[in-house]
Design brief:
The chain is mainly beta. It folds into 2 domains: 26-92; 105-173. The chain is built from no helices and 13 strands. Strand 5 and strand 6 form a beta hairpin. The protein is flat. The protein starts with 5 loop residues before the first strand and ends with a strand.
Length: 174
Amino acid sequence: MKKTLALIALVVTGSVVAHAQMSPVYVERSILCESNNNRTATCPSGLSQVYDARLQDQQSHAPCNPGQSYQINRDASVTVSNGCRADFYFEGLTYQVLQGDTVLGNVETDDVLCESNGGRTSSCLVNFSRPLRIQVSQQHSHAACIPGQTYRLESNSIVVSGGCRADFLVTGVR
């Protein structure tokens, strides 16, 4: 029997999925994270809780040194820089969203860049069948990014306005 952690209501394109539950699922996965042209890159693991994370297989000629050219982050992602390219091993929990005995999918996270240029409203698609929430992970604009005012989640898109430009951490079901 699966232990139910929380009872939630999912907002999906304006309708509510009633009596949905979240159940933990143990996952092991490898993700490739690449610093192309020595640029910094952050790669989400898609896990909600991490038990173990480490460099698994270095693929670059450039060194991958912890704290210098890569870092495992508290948000279950890895950041690489200075040409580091490697597979990283993650072990931890994700959550399945259940409606009765039907698995609707796993709860995962993703980073999405969305920009309101010139103050114009812009929409950016997210790669989830059921996005649940968004939050700013890194703001790039001088203009404020305020939830519900200059950014919001609308169906399968992030909508930004008023000059808000940011990387958003999106949590949802694929």
